[in-house]
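Lab notebook, page 48
Experiment: co-folding of the full assembly
Goal: obtain a model of how the components sit together before planning crosslinking
Operator: M.T.
Materials (sequences as entered):
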Amino acid sequence: MKLSADIIEQRLSHWPVARLATLNTSGQPHQVPIVFVWRAGKIWSPVDGKPKHGTPLSRVRNALANPAASILLDQYDEDWSQLWWLRVDVKLEIIYLDGANEITRSEAQEAIAGLKQKYPQYKTTAVLNEPPTLLAMTPIKYRSWRAK
Amino acid sequence: MKLSADIIEQRLSHWPVARLATLNTSGQPHQVPIVFVWRAGKIWSPVDGKPKHGTPLSRVRNALANPAASILLDQYDEDWSQLWWLRVDVKLEIIYLDGANEITRSEAQEAIAGLKQKYPQYKTTAVLNEPPTLLAMTPIKYRSWRAK
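Observation: model returned without errors.
Model output:
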């Protein structure tokens, strides 16, 4: 069974974590857990102050070479009748705040405010690193499943 | 920071859920949560009796066309100092039990026993659908991260 449109909206608005899959230039799928916020019809994820591997991050390098990406929200539960997942095929754009045009910058500022509201952890962790960078993901296709 | 070899072994042995990323034939990354068991140096996941979309499953169709896949284990926690992930680049093979040679069949039987032991849910859910099919994933590269 599928998730209803209402539940999809609710999960995108409130679920705390997603898994992002991109492709590296050798064609190898790459996954990483991300925090995100749902704003202006896009899924936004910051390159934030949590400790990181490498500069630039693989997710950024991969998206610059190939914008086709996948977002997965799901919950594991020992009661398998409670299982569900939501997969979104997305077009992933890298937004460098300093170089963005006014419309994009204003959308990004809203997303940053949304991230701070959704995650109180950003009171003590920087929401953006230098250079200020966001992943902006536009949904292309939704697919969902629930056990019952 | 990375996870130690001991912790990696422990997570692969006991963590209940992973996310699998494959590639479809249009080059779009595809993700799905899976249950799995770690046996004989491989990550095994069954095409089990949980309700499913489509036949054959996308993950199976994708792997038959392209064995490059990614496995992600991670735990989200509101305390961001507890975050960690383990990513494994894998070569994904589809094992049809009925057509497998003796060595493969014996490995697969061990994996099935391991799945039943790890997941008591298989007392009431079939561990294999028809035709009996397993995903066997051989690790190629490990990458891990923990916040502290």
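Interpretation: Helices of chain B lie at 5-14, 58-65, 102-118.
Next step: discuss with group before ordering constructs.
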